Amino acid sequence: MTRFTFSLVRRSSSLLALALLAGTQGQTATPTAVPTLPPPSALITAQPIGDSIFPALGQAGLDVLNYDLDLFVDRPGRSELRGTVVLTVTATQPLPVLSLDFLGPQVLDVRWEGLPAPYRHDQTAGKLTIQPPQPLRPGTLARVTVRFAGKAGVRPDPDLPIDVGWQAVPAQGDRVGANFTLSEPDGTRTFLPVNDHPSDPATFTTRVTVPAGYTAAASGVERAEVAAPDGGRTFTFEQAQPIPTYTLAIHVNQFERVDAAAVPVGVAGSDVLRRDYFPVGTQADTRAAYTSTGEILKVLAEWFGPYPFSAYGSAIVTPRVPALETATLSTMPVTSSNTRVLVHETAHQWFGDQLTLADWSEVWLNEGFATYAELLWAQAQGEAGEDIVRGWYARAGRSQTRPLVATSEAQLFDTTAYIRGALALHAVRVTVDDAAFKGYLRGWVAGFHNRPVTTADLLAYTRTRLGATAGAALRLWAESPELPPFPQR
Ligand code: TRP
Ligand code: ZN
Fold first, then answer.
1. Which of 112, 133, 252, 342 has the fewest CB atoms nearer than 10 Å to its CB?
2. Is any atom of ligand 1 closer than 6 Å to the C-beta of 357?
């Protein structure tokens, strides 16, 4: 019976029409001859989160608590993958359907609390719509299992010449094939069904099975490794603190894992485990930058408060791509293996990975703080810092400027987000002494990591914490259409 229902639902073009209508309120669709379908009203109520830049992402009212992922990378370097993910979900409003972001592999099977559930996977729209036996209600938990296999989906980056999401690096010369994730802003949906929005961070358990000779690395703390058939191995990682989906790192390569001394800058003085992953054959000059990681953690924890996770390090990748602040394991291209970039990605562990965005238009709250960390690091190394700030101001003056909250995709990672964002923080800093500024940064992290943040939150916090002068300075830097005057004490 279930099986029958299942195939009917999957073939139903009416359900396709309904899925396409998802999010369009007030329209009615009329499914015919699909007796097992729930009433149309129940199917058309899946509303996306309503991101101002990416209006189709996510599902409003859905709260994913945990993704428990079993991934099999049978042939590293290719885009095929297979796996099973169990999502532990709850809701903040009754949800008659679940609508996950998923561009990726074919869906083989969906289960709701272990029982087969009707679903429709629209790979073009990138939505996997699942029909629960009854609506998911606030205060209740459900476990939803999705089994998938095939080629990862493709998501061109909104403004860089790359595809985000599951990366396939083919074997070349004496370099073996490799894979890794590079998902900002919405690439995780190329290989995993997710609520792909930073306002719904979740914990992750990630098990990755790879062939003989390969190593997997992922966000979180590594658990015991287990033998798999044919000499393969299964690596397990526990990411116990919630992180946004785009910050999930998964790497498959022939790695050398290098452990370093733990750094006691975690929550309540706990140890932060230190490990880096270098592709076999990585040159010494590439590795050199990473010897500073422990010191970077100490300097940044002094300014921002305890490092939020239980482990930190980098996984080095060979393609020329931008570095990314993947949680507990920054993704660092060989070509960006320098201290400045490492400081930047490390700072994102607080700003972006722990403190998450309410909306992609607020991304300067990630990039401005991470860029500002570059100055804090330079000053901790004994540099005056003045040159850096002057350099930023000159750079901002040479580019188009705009208020800090972005209004288009093209603006997300522009000079304003990074440089004007950093200058805005400097404009706050010059209104107070460094002890007050440190308390301000620490207070922002400590007070706001439990819910997604906005510029309005930071403005209000700045006024209450530091007073009217600081508040007005930030407001000018956040909102003025022109570049404000150089920030000086
Ligand atoms: N957040 C990254 C940084 O500044 C930059 C970035 C934006 C990125 N989009 C990306 C990196 C896509 C890799 C892929 O550190
Ligand atoms: Zn950044």
1. 133
2. no
CATH superfamily entry for domain 3-9+16-347: tricorn interacting facor f3 domain (2.60.40.1730)
Start-end of CATH 1.10.390.10 domains in the chain? 360-479
Alpha carbon of 248 to ligand 1 centroid (Å): 13
Of 413, 415, 416, 418, best ligand 1 pocket probe by most atoms within 8 Å of the beta carbon:
413
At residue 158, the pLDDT reads 85
Read off the pLDDT of each residue in 396-408 and give the average, rounded to a whole number.
98
Q: How far is the CA of 371 from the centre of ligand 2 (A)?
A: 7
CA atoms within 13 A on the CB side of 319: 22
**Count of beta carbons in the 10 Å neighbourhood of residue 213:** 12
Q: Which residues surround ligand 2, an ion (CB under 5 A)?
A: 367, 370
**What digits encode the pLDDT tens for the residues 198-230?**
999 999 999 999 999 999 999 999 999 999 999
Asked if 405 and 421 touch (Cβ cutoff 8 Å), the reply is no
Fold of 360-479: Neutral Protease; domain 2 (1.10.390)
Q: Per-residue pLDDT tens for 37-76?
A: 454 444 556 999 999 999 999 999 999 999 999 999 999 9
CA dihedral 426, 427, 429, 433 (to 10 degrees): 140
